[in-house]
Design goal:
Layout lengths: L3 E9 L3 H19 L2 E7 L3 H7 L5 H7 L4 E6 L9 H13 L4 E7 L17 E7 L9 E3 L4 E2 L2 E2 L4 E2 L2 E2 L10 E3 L5 H17 L4 E6 L5 H17 L3 E6 H10 L6 E4 L1 H14 L9 E3 L4 E3 L18 H13 L3 H17 L15 H10 L2
Parallel strand pairs: 1-2, 1-3, 3-16, 5-14, 12-13, 12-14
Antiparallel strand pairs: 4-5, 4-15, 6-11, 7-10, 8-9, 15-16
Helix pairs in contact: 1-9, 1-10, 1-11, 5-6, 7-8, 9-10, 10-11
InterPro entries: ICDH/IPMDH (IPR050501), IsoCit/isopropylmalate_DH_CS (IPR019818), IsoPropMal-DH-like_dom (IPR024084)
Organism: Aminithiophilus ramosus
GO molecular function, one term: magnesium ion binding
Amino acid sequence: MSRSYRIAQMAGDGIGPEVVAEARKVVEAVASAKGFGLSWVDYPFGAEHYLKTGEILPESVLDELQSCQALLLGAIGDPRVKAGILERGILLKLRFFFDMFVNLRPAKAFPRVPLPVPLPEGREMDLLVVRENTEDFYVGLGGDGGSPVDLGLERGLYTMEGEMRVRFSTPQRSAFQVGLATEGAVRRITADACERALGRGEKRLTLATKANAMPQLYGFWEEMARDETEKRGLTFETINVDALCYHLVRTPWKWNVVLCPNMFGDIVSDLLAALSGGLGVAAGANIGAGLGMFEPVHGSAPDIARQNRANPLAAILSAALMLDCLGEKEAARSVEAAVGAFLAGARPDELPEEMGGRGTTSAVGDAVASHL
């Protein structure tokens, strides 16, 4: 075949192996239909591997992954492992090593997926949250006021050094969390969001902000993002993130591409996941200049693991994002259309369990693949 891609697969924990198997099934079906090749490299990392071996994610694997074009991830998290060990040791390690500065979270209303706030007749919901993925309050810098706060940080764009000291007039227990924005990081995520808006035929870009309360951080964001957006001929608008959440619930059809600093993007994208039908159709991508990581938002759901009950649609839609980022845009559109066709045409009992049906994980995957 003229085109071939080397894809890493990390099925992970809980329902991860089940939903990734169906996503892979669909990707292989569309690859066959569209004439490109795939080679898969499977990695065992997750809770089971950690509990058996004590190994989280070796440095040598990071080097191996550089030969892959994408990583398809199932889910990370298990109640038998202390929270944070796997998340920091696998997810954050991968994001920072490969400088995955873009987090994509589409929110689209699909046929027959129940919505908590029904759309008026003739209205559609099809948004894209573009979230900055390396800075803001998620840089992991902070501490208590009783000792200097180390501000050492390594990112793809820079290395930072420094420390913060505070002194109170009377003894106080205190805690600090540092938010960070740099011009390079804001400009590159804004440029990415602009390109995605233009690719969708949009003429404006909306920034979620809170400069009225935090002018140093988010006023800086507004300045850099406005300049970068207007260079590309798009209309730039800002809206306070609290007001945005209010309007998203009332009129989600009025919004298209929303650019968010890291923390706001985390919150807004989960709100939109609920508004567009729940985590069962919530896809996610972490991308940068190198390896991209594609994963459903829903987590590992250990209570239904290994029961063939999990909804695989979010994993399948995450695989569609993977194909799009690989440049196989027609294949990506075909997968999304196949999900829509399945949902529109399935009998009520064929729908996934969370949508009121009795469709098993494997049956839903088979049905989507059949539409390709």
